[in-house]
Amino acid sequence: MLKYSQQTLIYTRYFAKVMGRNPTVLIYTIGLPIFFLILNTAGHFFKPLTPIQYAANVAPFISWMIFSSALQAVSAVAILREQGYLKQYQSLVTSPSVILVAETLISFIQLGISITLVGGLSGLVFNLPVLPLLAELWLTLLLSFPAAVCFCLPLLAFSAREKTVDALVNLISIGVVFASFGLAAVMTPAIQNPLFNILSPLFLGSFIFRALVSQIGAYLLTYIISLIVLGIVGYLSYRHLKLLPAEVI
């Protein structure tokens, strides 16, 4: 376990250095979500919101940030595989999961910075107490990010060329949005319904934040069920992880 942790830390630092050499990527991954938050919520600026109103108007965007970061982390591993690096790294680490965990940690750190900035900005423009809001946002991140990663892991269970991976990421992103709207159209979104949480990471993150604000008791069992199901999906997907690029297979 100690060796695994050390290797994870080494590769996390390595991937962080690679990212740090390209400040454009850093600005894109941290700054762009904040820009879109401002763009989408400008109509509510400097109008006091209650926590429940914040959950309805801003939390869905937070959920999208969490899901897209999880998808970015998983797709980064898929691209490493298609470039031939994942198989090379396998000979240097105790388990290929070291690379997955390292990439996931990088995305988590980026997301944590963005969430903190969003919380500070939200406290200012929506007249909300900053520290309680930051605590709720960070709890939402901690509770929903692992589930979102598990939701995205099937991407690693199939071989696909690098360009195809990019196309699949776009397709998954669009599919999740349409699936979320489709579910809401045929059924009333209910915080106690595990189906919404399992099929849509956007509902998952939004419901977690809403539960932390007002309905934690009603949501706890639903969250546990959703986490177990998504955990099984992630485990089975990892068990079928493809290490070789599609061109080699």
From TrEMBL:
The keyword Transmembrane applies. The keyword Membrane applies. It comes from the Bacteria. It comes from Lactiplantibacillus plajomi. The chain crosses the membrane at residues 25-46, 58-80, 92-117, 137-156, 168-188, 220-238. Keywords: Membrane, Transmembrane, Transmembrane helix. This is ABC transporter permease.
